[in-house]
Amino acid sequence: MRVVALIPDCLEQPAGGLGEQARHLMANMQDCEFEVIGTNAQAASHKGNVEYRPLSMLPLACTQAEALALNLDMQAAYAAELIGAQKPDLIHAFDWTTYTAGIYAARRWRVPLVCTMQLSLRLMIEQRVVVVPDQFASVAELNIAMETRGMANADRMIFVSQDYRRHHPYVEDERARVIYNGIDFSAWSSAEPAPLPGSRPFKLVYIGRFDRMKNVAAIIGAKLPESVDLIFIGSDRGGSTGLYDAVKDRAEADAQVHMVGPKYGPEKLSLLKAADAVVMPSLHEPFGIVALEAMASRSLLLTSFAGGMAEFVPSDIGIPCGVSAESISAAIDGAVRLSPAERARRLDGGEAVARSLDWPVLTEQVRAVYHQVIHN
């Protein structure tokens, strides 16, 4: 089976959960040949069953609507890269920002189209996670129209949580599938802890994109007990430069706050294994792969239970932290004060959840979707 995959991320050192998802799915589907078109954060390569080609995007002078304008330009860039692709058995568009290119390529080759809904722009705007200035409303409407058209034209729509599926009821049940993200549990269970910065005994970690939906600003505003070091792990890719700079400023001004930059592969796993707790006060979360990583690391999880996280993080395992600086502060204080027995119970329960969402199990669900659309 040959699959052309369109991803607005990369497979090596990805910016977010989308790249992690694609990388692990492809690694566990060795019977498939993948031609991947992704961002230029990764150079062209051909490893095993995956050929990777980066987008070649021209510089674009933009105003405040830069992200929305780049989404339109990106569709054209994907379409241009597809010109040289070999005809596949199916196309998998991993995000709405790739749907339009996927639709036209599927029509040209007369092959099935599978789309995954990773993030819904419509939903984020409705929930005020993304705020669009009035003068750019028409650009946002065009982006939303492309998102909706992709769902209407997909032979199968994959949602990463039941929560996201519920918010898109107009996709018929026969075309909709809910497939969670997963984790390479064997890699996490065999990783050894590595030292985290700071001299305080309790290590609290934020890892991920510095984006409004992740509620990084509230973490920065939280009050830390004297026993806590707060460590930020992540890059300035895929998020807000302003938030990234705000974290760096806080780290420079506060001896309890540390910025270690982006970490990938075994180094990332070892740092998370050393964390006492991971904080995820997200405002919007289609799934929340970092929550899985925290539980697989045997770290306490401070969570807002936003969106898809509430489906797989048990309420008696995750520690509710809300979305305000004050509620996050209270949750941190509560985590520090947990009894050893209660801490062990939460860590054991979280590890069991992570083990149940191992990538090989979830890969079989995606493979089943591929076979269904091809044979239909």
From TrEMBL:
What name is this protein filed under? Glycosyl transferase family 1
List, alphabetically, the SUPFAM superfamilies matched.
UDP-Glycosyltransferase/glycogen phosphorylase
Domain Glycosyl transferase family, by residue range, is: 200-339
**Which positions fall inside the Glycosyltransferase subfamily 4-like N-terminal domain?**
16-182
Query: Which taxonomic lineage is given here?
Result: Bacteria, Pseudomonadati, Pseudomonadota, Gammaproteobacteria, SAR86 cluster
Single GO molecular function: glycosyltransferase activity
